[in-house]
Amino acid sequence: SHGEKPDYVQLLAKIIQETFDRGGNLVIPSFALGRTQEMLYFIRQIKADDLVHGHDGFKVYVDSPLANEATTIFSEHQYDCFDEEAMDLIKKGINPISFPGLKVSVTSDDSKAINYDEEPKVIISASGMCDAGRIKHHLKHNLWDERNTILFVGYQAVGTLGRALIEGATDVKLFGEPIHVAAHICQMPGISGHADVNGLLDWAKAFEEKPQKVFVTHGEDTVTEIFAKRLKED
Fold it and tell me: 221 exposed, middle or buried (CB, 10 Å; 0-12, 13-18, 19+)?
């Protein structure tokens, strides 16, 4: 179960505030499609409501070519796909996933330049589990500094660098170099693009004719076994 949905805007604002007050960067490993745009949606509201104090106009870098392409597609299809809350903003002339201070990084030179910006900033980059992509470069530049925060906003599979960091690894290897982990590591609870156990059970119960066989293929071994048992019993 994802549990009760927290107030993501307030939670994210608090993490940004604490990180910036230490003089650090907030690095968010994020899936390029969906999750990155969700983060931009929250940050736009944080900026609009002045929820972060003393760091006016703070910069947010999206450093993922795929995420930037996806964000463009979101904007092109706002009238077909956005929900009521987002449409209310559109009607007021507000782009729900854009704001002052948003910087898009396209080339590898753009990406490298982010690490020369010494002001506290938010860096959103893929991949979400830190096993590939530009995020690894940002971790190399930020993990060793205790002023920084690495915020995970999605599931971290067993065996990934993201999972190792969440489970408290004190040293990791990036590009063959050992990096000591001194940054604050935290995770936003309950944020997921998937239905939880209750959502899946509701879906299974909605069949007019009960399925004869169900294959549970997605998730960690213990979780899939528990879910299969629950499906059988219910």
Answer: exposed
pLDDT tens digits, the chain, 234 residues: what are they? 888 889 999 999 999 999 999 999 999 999 999 999 999 999 999 999 999 999 999 999 999 999 999 999 998 998 888 999 999 999 999 999 999 999 999 999 999 999 999 999 999 999 999 999 999 999 999 999 999 999 999 989 889 999 999 999 999 999 999 999 999 999 998 787 788 899 999 999 999 998 889 999 888 888 899 999 999 998
pTM attached to this predicted model: 0.91
What stretches of 54-198 adopt beta strand conformation (E)?
59-63, 102-104, 121-125, 149-152, 171-174, 177-180, 184-187
